[in-house]
Design a protein that fits this description.
Strand content of chain A: 15-25%
Strand content of chain B: 5-15%
Number of helices of chain A: 13
Radius of gyration of chain A: 20 Å
Structural class of chain A: alpha/beta
Bound molecules: thiamine diphosphate, magnesium ion
Helix content of chain B: 25-40%
Strand order of the largest sheet of chain A: 2-3-4-6-5-11
Shape of chain B: globular
CATH topology of the largest domain in chain A: Rossmann fold
Shape of chain A: globular
CATH class of chain B: Alpha Beta
Number of domains of chain A: 2
Number of strands of chain B: 7
CATH superfamily of the largest domain in chain A: Thiamin diphosphate (ThDP)-binding fold, Pyr/PP domains
Structural class of chain B: alpha/beta
Radius of gyration of chain B: 23 Å
CATH architecture of the largest domain in chain A: 3-Layer(aba) Sandwich
Distance between the termini of chain B: 58 Å
Order of helices and strands of chain A: EHEHHEHHEHEHEEEEHEEHEHEHHH
Number of strands of chain A: 13
Number of helices of chain B: 10
Largest sheet of chain A: 6 strands, mixed
Helix content of chain A: 25-40%
CATH architecture of chain B: 3-Layer(aba) Sandwich
Largest sheet of chain B: 5 strands, parallel
CATH superfamily of chain B: Thiamin diphosphate (ThDP)-binding fold, Pyr/PP domains
Oligomer: heterodimer
Order of helices and strands of chain B: HHEHHHEHEEEEHEHHH
Strand order of the largest sheet of chain B: 1-2-3-7-6
CATH class of the largest domain in chain A: Alpha Beta
């Protein structure tokens, strides 16, 4: 085992794959800058494999597609997820569709890396979590790792995958450290992880809602309520079987996701469980997600947006009490700390 | 002029014209070509002159008016016609149709229905050749309408900044659908824009296959030798309306304009040149008959080909099949009350 940050895991994954396979190249604006995980790569791999990139998202995304169809494996780093929108036509109309349109004559093996800077006071144009929009596009695989080990193993798998993979990184996890297996660590695309076992409520958590759910679980365990935390890790393909197996055990489901409510990943997971796991459910499904409003700049307001341990705990506890709320309660504006979360839990479960 | 090459040029130009006439005939008679069909009749010299300047392993990217491009690059006609008819033997298995022909076996990297989007993809193919250490060049075809979209400018800039072996061939047929280029572009020509990217910009008579060949050959040689990209503007004309709408009314164009261009038909010009060079009428008639039979055979092949089977709907989407943990046995449905819907859906129905 080694200990490294999520950010370091991204760097190691790219380094290892670029050393292994000379067809892997990196397209990243300012990719040689000291702040970037690819800093220093040009010294080892040369200017052709780490080219200087103009601010030209549509152009270089198209170029990555042409390169991918002719034998390369580009990693395209948008550095900020919202910047993908500038290249939307190339991603949605071409990367995702070319293989199908051309009857399988060529694949488009690209990894689109997208760091999501939400919860970082960057306001609405830098704070999106766009994966639900792309879940609606067949032909793209979608990965949202929540730990350094998964970031490493899934990025390596994504680079080796022959399909386009969109790799979403919650930026506030970049600094989080964790243990990573030694050797050539690969995590298969399409397998969920059971982040914590429990008997009473399944919490399917996405991205940085995973650590939030684990904290909620630790808090509720003190009250005798067991949360099972499932981290899908990849949203396309989605490991439906792992989610259904957990719901079969607990009979209760909370879905925690920092993306918007409408047509989100949580909505899709809820629909799947309603269709295929209805008989398992002992209570309504609850989504703990971002409301349908833009991320505001003010940290005092943005704090209300995303799943917190207390919101997740409150939702799970209410399900166990049998006082299932019809939906996630309004974000607790006053309960922004862990202490407050425990107080809320006490009130909901003990009361 | 080069007699062998001109004979080959005539063969390919005739292939395109007879192929598109056959397609128009099938459309007119309602014999099985659905959707939009854009023919390039009148523009064959620009198409063939450019492709003859390429090596078999060079890359070529087309656009929506692109039956001619793969034909000129050497693609077999039968699978192209079958693709227009949506058959399973189509070059793209019936997934792309008229606007997405691609034949990777001859370096035809496909066509896009999004104006301009193929340009950066060709740049990526040229970049890929550099990284892989080959001397292949990549040529992008596009219309005059594409000269005003961002991907044109981003693609040219990338190719120039990176000094790639890319050749950009604008088939300026004066109109984008009904819109005259003069009304949408302030610069004096498309080629003039090359100066902004510090690459050569050349205007060539697009009705003269030898002139096109010479200009594009020089560009290809320059690109292959590491001299960077070139923009070529071939002045040409399409005889048909934008697409095969069923009612071909060109009365919105000035009659003298139509007359002028039809008097400079590229096939007739080349035919006359070959006669003047001493090739006999008999020899040319034999060549024309060979081509006509090739096209008849392609139409027979397409019409006799089977329609795709329903299960082919899902084929060609993924390179690596989606894999998740094995499915759980279906849970028992709850006992009534509740509708009894699911089993009523026939197995194998539309998913
Ligand atoms: C980005 C985009 N905008 C608009 C269209 C609709 N459209 C298809 S072809 C066309 C005209 C294109 O003209 P030009 O590039 O000159 O090619 P031509 O049809 O003359 O060969 C238009 C407007 C499109 N397909 N893509
Ligand atoms: Mg035009």
């Amino acid at each position: 085992m080694r200990t490294m940050s999520y950010r370091e895991a991204l760097r190691v994954a790219m380094l290892e794959e670029m050393r292994r396979d000379p067809s892997v190249v990196v397209f990243c604006e300012d990719g040689r800058f000291w702040t970037m995980p690819t800093n220093g790569f040009v010294d080892e791999f040369g200017p052709d494999r780490v080219p200087v990139m103009p601010i030209s998202e549509e152009g270089f995304t198209g170029a990555a597609i042409g390169a991918a169809m002719t034998g390369l494996r580009p990693i395209v780093d948008y550095t900020i997820a919202n910047l993908m929108y500038v290249a939307w036509d190339q991603i949605v109309n071409h990367a995702a569709k070319n293989r199908y349109l051309f009857g399988g004559q060529a694949s488009v093996p690209i990894v689109f890396r997208a760091a999501m800077k939400y919860a970082n006071a960057t306001a609405a144009q830098h704070s999106d979590r766009p994966y639900p929009q792309l879940m609606n596009v067949p032909g793209l695989k979608i990965v949202v790792p929540s730990t350094p080990a998964d970031a490493l193993g899934l990025l390596k798998s994504a680079i080796r995958d022959d399909d386009p993979v969109v790799f979403f990184e919650p930026l506030r996890l970049w600094g989080v450290k964790g243990e990573v297996p030694d050797g050539d660590h690969l995590v298969p695309i399409g397998r969920a992880a059971v982040a914590r076992e429990g008997e009473d409520v399944t919490v399917v958590a996405i991205g940085d809602a995973v650590p939030a759910a684990l904290r909620a679980a630790a808090g509720l365990a003190e009250r005798g309520v067991g949360l099972e935390v499932i981290d899908p890790r990849t949203l396309v393909p989605l490991d439906k079987a792992a989610i259904l197996a957990s719901v079969a055990k607990t009979g209760r489901l909370v879905i925690a996701d920092p993306a918007h409510r409408t047509c989100g990943a949580a909505a899709e997971i809820a629909a799947i469980v309603a269709e295929e796991g209805f008989a398992f459910l002992r209570a309504p499904i609850v989504r703990v997600v971002a409301p349908d409003v833009h991320p505001p700049f003010s940290p005092a307001l943005e704090r209300l947006m995303y799943p917190t341990p207390e919101r997740i705990a409150a939702a799970a506890a209410a399900l166990v009490r049998g006082a299932a709320p019809a939906a996630d309660p309004a974000p607790p504006a006053t309960a922004a700390t862990d202490t407050a979360a425990r107080d809320t839990t006490k009130e909901l479960v003990g009361g | 002029m080069n007699r062998e090459r001109d004979l080959e040029a005539l063969r390919r130009m005739l292939r395109i014209r007879r192929f598109e006439e056959a397609a128009m005939d099938i459309v007119r008679k309602g014999q099985g070509i659905a959707g939009s069909v854009h023919v390039c009749i009148g523009q064959e010299a620009a198409v063939v002159g450019s492709c003859l300047a390429l090596r078999a392993d060079d890359y070529m990217v087309g656009y929506h008016r692109s039956h001619g491009h793969p034909i000129a690059k050497g693609a077999a006609l039968g699978p192209l016609m079958a693709e227009l008819m949506g058959r399973r033997t189509g070059v793209c298995h019936g997934k792309g149709g008229s606007m997405h022909l691609a034949d990777f076996s001859v370096g035809s990297l496909g066509e896009t229905a999004i104006v301009g989007a193929g340009i950066p993809q060709a740049v990526g193919a040229a970049y890929s050749a550099r990284v892989r250490g080959t001397d292949q060049v990549a040529l992008a075809f596009f219309g005059d309408g594409a000269a005003n979209i961002g991907s044109f400018h981003e693609g040219l800039n990338l190719a120039a900044a990176w000094g790639l072996g890319a050749v950009f061939v604008c088939e300026n047929n004066l109109y984008a659908m009904s819109t005259a280029l003069a009304d949408t572009m302030a610069s004096e020509s498309v080629a003039a824009r090359a100066a902004a990217y510090r690459m050569p910009g050349v205007i060539v008579d697009g009705q003269d296959v030898d002139a096109v060949y010479d200009v594009v050959s020089a560009a290809v040689e320059r690109g292959r030798a590491g001299g960077g990209p070139t923009l070529v503007e071939a002045r040409t004309y399409r005889y048909r309306d934008h697409a095969e709408y069923g009612n071909m009314d060109l009365s919105h164009r000035p009659a003298e304009e139509v007359e002028h261009w039809r008097s400079r038909d590229p096939v007739e010009l080349l035919h006359a040149r070959l006669l003047a060079d001493g090739i006999s009428e008999t020899e040319l008639a034999a060549l024309a008959e060979t081509v006509a039979e090739e096209v008849r055979a392609a139409v027979r092949f397409a019409k006799q080909s089977p329609q795709p089977a329903p299960e082919e709907l899902f084929e060609d989407l993924w390179a690596t099949p989606i894999e998740t943990t094995p499915a759980m046995p279906a849970p028992p449905m709850p006992s009534p009350p509740g509708p009894v819907p699911v089993a009523a859906v026939p197995a194998g129905g539309a998913r």
